Structure prediction request, 590 residues.
Amino acid sequence: MKTLIELLSAEVGKAFETAGYDEKYGKITVSNRPDLCEFQCNGAMPAAKEYKKAPIAIAQDVAAALNGCACFSMIDAVAPGFLNLKVDPVYLRDYLTKMRTEDRFGYAPERSGERIIVDYGGPNVAKPLHIGHLRAAIIGESVKRICKFAGNDVIGDIHLGDWGLQMGLIITELKERKPDLPYFDENFTGDYPAEAPFTISELEEIYPTASAKSKDDDAYKEAALQATYQLQHGNRGYLAIWDHIMRISVEDLKRNYENLNVHFEWWKGESDVQPLIPGMVEDLKKSGLAHESEGALVVDVAEEGDTKEVPPCMILKSDGASLYATTDLATLLDRRQAFDPDQVIYVVDKRQEMHFLQVFRTARKAGIVKDGIRLDFLGFGTMNGKDGKPFKTRSGGVMRLETLIEDINEQMYTKIMENHEADPEEARETAKIVALSAIKYGDLSNQATKDYIFDTDKFTSFEGNTGPYILYTIVRIKSILTKYADSQDATAVSACALAGAVNETDKALMLELVKFHDVMEAAYSEIAPHRICAYIYDVANAFNRFYHENKILGETDKQKQQGWIALLDLTEKLLETCIDLLGFGAPERM
Ligand code: ARG
Prediction:
């Protein structure tokens, strides 16, 4: 459905026309003087230039033409030529009633029905998830849900880092520790054991140990590079170890992402596209796009008008090995074959911006992606501690994601138990739900590209612009609706019809709710979940102001009360939809 602003602008435009002016001057905006009016139209000022007339005279003409229009309850022409407007309560009620009955609240995206892949997560297998992976997971999941809500067919792909040096390092370390395993026996032809020769915790210890060793032992590093090379060239025993590593790590990753309410449709990885590389490289050579430079194979991607230097995209190193960009190009090829996307959105650390610029340009030049495809890089900033430096553990180490989540869960639990008496088991469950909102909202309420400070005390607060505050508001509304239904019957809430606003606070809430369509469109087209956060914060504030100034359950005027219950019902549904798009849910009680 059309947005309220569009509908009202059309009415004002018509009035301009009736009064003898171009209707294009009828655009209205939300008022920047809320003490005077709800909406304003500034069109008389530019119209004055065209018609060589005083702007106030034009504004008065338009006001006169608007007289009798059902959509405004106040139309004021004021100096020097503004039109100050208030929307009619009945008109507003009808608009909200339509929102309440329509699918997606009547949100009709400009672009819809497309195939979109969101590439996010990107963890490297066998390394524990740490807070560096948090932002990709949180932002990517939300972006994916927003794209789905806009009516697209969307795939979230984790794009595992599963083919690199870390695999060679693990193999090398394992060989040192257990040289007698059949994987290292070149003459072994039987079936390898089904059981992995390590557990996940051993694996998580093996990798950092190996990585540290390789840094000050050249021979060890060489062995790891060799092992990586052999793995990538089909060494049977190494591939069997790789299988074990994958199975065990992926299981652990699934559990971790599950805890974050993050779900991927595809669990593909860098390894999956390796078979596509030789043919792709051949094509790049044949087309003449790729050329040799200092022994390496590169594609020039600099363009006229570049404001910074864009170096050539490296396809093969001088030793013939493929690189990060090669894999990403092959992945685009694979995605085209498997899903034929209209858009691919990458949610990755913004320090990788140049890499993606090179990959996108090469992919377009080489026709690896179809014409007209949208390739978007949403680069996110760093998550910092209160000291403004990248978030670390107290001892200065990299913090594991699990530890961070456990810490916040614990804090939330303590808070809930302090707040009111609660059953410890239920409080644990609630704490988990609220903690997730704290972590996710804390991240998503910032523009993704900016660095932000992970401030535990602020994020877990029940007041201010936080996830727990939003949930608290939702729980409050739910409790009123439940109490109302209990006093009537189960269908009582949906049977209530919206009514026209009766005072300033219920109208203010209504005027926040109607912004939904614009907010969704902005969040989708700008790939910007923070827009949704800003919206629900305004809605929550407007609701709480309304709640404090009106006795909803105690109201004796039944029609008024039913109108409010319907308003609460819509508010609650909008808020729940929005937090679902952000990737978290609300508890029943808090
Ligand atoms: N594994 C990569 C890293 O740790 C992130 C992958 C991002 N996605 C991609 N298609 N390159 O840096």
User: Anything to note?
Assistant: The longest helix spans residues 558-582. The two ends are 35 Å apart (CA to CA).
